[in-house]
Design brief:
Blueprint lengths: L4 H4 L11 E9 L41 E6 L5 H11 L12 E9 L1 H7 L7 E13 L15 E3 L4 E5 L17 E7 L19
Parallel strand pairs: 1-7
Antiparallel strand pairs: 1-2, 3-4, 3-7, 4-6, 5-6
């Protein structure tokens, strides 16, 4: 009999494992365009003379990339989408509408296009790809609509005068589940409830340079 999926994942002891740095990007109503993560290309190398009338003078380094708005955190591979939502909404509660119930927070992984960089060389350097990670929905503490992994006491966050529940089938997915590599980014889109109060559908961007 095959081993359960959870048994195949290495267990992470947060007391003994050093957390790593993660940039958590955010935007209301949509994801950040991948073009905003691009790294400025470096000046091409030149093997010409370094002295004399035809010498090539040293060029200034390209300006550092100006990244979209983000939160810098330290976490582990076992960090869940629910935990990322708690960290984001606790640090920046103004991102949530009032009332917050019915808000959907969608996540996607942003990672370097290493395959194109290997085949295309400098022309593909600094390009990023993305893949969807799932979403978390903000609901009332007593909401009957819970994900299959929601428990009675966990997954709540205090935002405003009443407690809220962070729920959904994707809420307990971890960075490890998505093969996160240290240095990758996580981007999230905050989708307020629709005009009729219902939850907005998740943003599906697929996998690739979208």
């Amino acid at each position: 009999m095959a081993a359960p999926r959870d048994a195949l994942k290495p267990q992470i002891d947060r007391q003994k494992t050093t957390p790593f740095h993660l940039k958590l990007f955010y935007r209301v109503n949509s994801f950040n365009p991948l073009s905003e993560f691009a790294v400025p290309s470096s000046p091409s190398s030149y093997n010409g003379p370094t002295s004399g009338p035809n010498a090539i003078r040293a060029r200034s380094p390209p300006p550092a990339a100006r990244l979209p708005a983000h939160l810098e955190i330290y976490t582990w591979q076992s960090c869940t989408l629910r935990e990322l939502t708690q960290l984001l909404t606790s640090a920046l509660p103004s991102l949530l509408p009032d009332p917050a119930v019915g808000t959907r927070i969608c996540f996607r992984l942003i990672y370097p296009d290493t395959k194109s960089a290997a085949t295309m060389g400098g022309d593909a350097r600094g390009r990023y790809l993305s893949k969807d990670m799932g979403s978390v929905v903000v609901g009332p503490k007593d909401s009957p609509y819970r994900g299959e992994n929601d428990d009675e006491n966990g997954g709540s966050a205090a935002t405003g005068p009443r407690a809220l529940r962070l729920q959904g089938n994707d809420a307990d997915k971890t960075l490890q589940d998505w093969r996160f590599v240290i240095g990758d980014y996580v981007d999230c889109a905050i989708l307020p409830p629709l005009e009729d109060g219902s939850v907005a559908p998740p943003l599906i961007t697929g996998r690739g340079p979208g």
